# Entry
Amino acid sequence: MKEFAFYPGCSSEKNASASNMENSVHHMCEMLGVKLKEIDDWNCCSASIGYAGGGHLPRLALTARNFALSKQQMGDSPVVASCAACWLALRETNERMHEEPGVKENLNTALKEAGLSYDGKLEVKHLVELLVDDAYVGFDALKAKVTKPLTGVKMAGYVGCQTNRPFGIAGDNYENPEYLDRMIEACGATAVPFPKKVACCGGALAFSENEKSCDLIKDILQSAVDNGAEVIVTPCPVCQLNVEVYQEKVNKLFGTNFAIPVVYYSQLFVLAWGGGWKKAALDQQVVPADVLKKFA
# Structure
């Protein structure tokens, strides 16, 4: 069994907004023979305080602490994140430690207060990177596990911003990333053309500028529907939350009638591999994914 240090992130906690992703991710990895060993005593990745003006050094120090704990507990194991915002925070901290003068020294001065240190050398992976890379899992292995292909269901692969820029998934295209479409097809479903696959959903602006964010969400939903999608699939907890839970608000604001389920790629794999409805955490959806019930 392959084992990796795992940083779950705040939104994946029990009863939090992305707990359905967390549940399905663990079942998916168990079925693949991949062990995600959660970093003990991890803290917030600092994505949120970045918006709140928490300061440059405190923001990076929070993430550096997670690296330092991982190094203590699991040595040189790559640190894997399933949340796009967490992955960005981890990647940014590593890059700045190497590329910006004084950052590494200042972070270690802060970490020293907690009896910790970090050399900036741990590799960071988004969970998607492990799944699509033949060196770890690869598309052939994902397809080989399918026992209940999701045949006939049309899906829009919504990558969003954070898994696409600034880093992106290695080897894919920034303007038209294909990995999510290939994941959908690996499950036996049909990936429809989707011009809004890398459009912004508003992110955290959904809280402070809700109507502006809803306008962005409306365009994403309309594009999916116009292209025949019955389900929207995403790798991002923020995208999933915004595009699913604000559909009712969008309908009220714009006179639309959207009711399209928004799910994670991990939920599709668990379902297509015969794991069932509950292990896929499809019982936790706000907009019911009834179109997938026949595969449960």
In short: The chain has two domains: 2-127, 146-295. The chain is about 45% helix and 10% strand. The first strand starts at residue 2 and ends at 7. The CA atoms of residues 57 and 106 lie 8 Å apart.
